[in-house]
Amino acid sequence: xxxPIIAEITGNLHVxxxxxxSAIGVAMVGMKAAEAVxxxxxxxxxVITLAVLGMALAEAIVFYALFLxx
Length: 70
Description:
90% helix
């Protein structure tokens, strides 16, 4: 009787931690991209391309977690 409740709480906890980790990852990518462009403004195009790709991959982890939990 209590196992489904515990499983749901555990699943919600995993998704929450995954979302927190993803937000931290996106923030770190943005921080380092801004730092890189600040050091070398001529590399803006290459840096922004890699930063957007890195942010998209970091955010995709949350969607994987949501699909696997439910």
